Amino acid sequence: MASNTILVCILALCFSVALASVVPVQDFCVADPKGQALVNGVACKDPKLVTPEDFFFSGLDKPGNTSNPFGSKVTSFNVAQIPGLNTLGISMVRVDYAPYGFNAPHTHPRASELFTVLEGTIEVGFVTGNPDLRHFKKVLNKGDMFVFPYGLIHYQKNVGNGNAAAIAAFNNQNAGMIPLAATMYQSQPDICDEIVARSFQLDQGFVKNIQSKQ
Ligand SMILES: *[C@@H]1O[C@H](CO)[C@@H](O)[C@H](O)[C@H]1NC(C)=O
């Protein structure tokens, strides 16, 4: 009985700690990019100086420029573009894909993602962590949604005949993005080519060559 009471108390404490980090403690904390305070996120602007523009951003209807080697473009609508998102735990992106365009494998270290197709046909997939490394993939059409769970590596590819576009929502105002290949080949300074080559079971000279081109 006593141990049950202790367990209930510990659970209650866990829930209150978890909730404390999610529920706002004021109406808003609009980001002040010039703020000097070193906080976990961005400091709040003086509420008296907040205007409707802090909660506004336009352009979700504008396709991004996909003329690049990936044939895709991610346009972000997060706390960097909309200061009023600060501390609220939500943000969005628009992703455009040229024919054969793809969004290379990446993770968002601070969010789950709800991906929604606006136009075209897009193959999506994510892979679970060790030990199973299960690959979940599906072909989506206009209006279809797919979830990329918190932190898992995922990708998208335009498999239709024309352009494709999607919007995605994140449960973080600053979800972050870690691109798998670029992390291996473009870090400054380089991750030692031997480590990259042996991790991917590639020839070390091949890796050195890719790294030198970045
Ligand atoms: C798209 O990007 C390419 C490559 O950077 C550039 O040459 C082109 O002018 C851009 N197109 C538009 C419409 O901005």
From TrEMBL:
Annotated residues for binding of Mn(2+): 106, 108, 113, 154
Compartment(s) where it occurs, according to its Swiss-Prot or TrEMBL record: Secreted, Extracellular space, Apoplast
GO MF entries: manganese ion binding
InterPro entries: Cupin_1, Germin, Germin_Mn-BS, RmlC-like_jellyroll, RmlC_Cupin_sf
Signal peptide extent: 1-20
Principal place of residence: secreted
Residues given in the record as oxalate binding sites: 103, 108, 113
Domain (Cupin type-1) ranges: 58-208
GO CC terms, sorted: apoplast
Gene3D superfamilies recorded: Jelly Rolls (2.60.120.10)
Bridged cysteine pairs (disulfide): 29-44
SMART domains: Cupin_1
Presence of the UniProt keyword RNA-binding in the record: no
Protein's job: May play a role in plant defense. Probably has no oxalate oxidase activity even if the active site is conserved.
Name recorded for this polypeptide: Germin-like protein
Organism: Dipteronia sinensis
Top-level taxonomy: Eukaryota, Viridiplantae, Streptophyta, Embryophyta, Tracheophyta
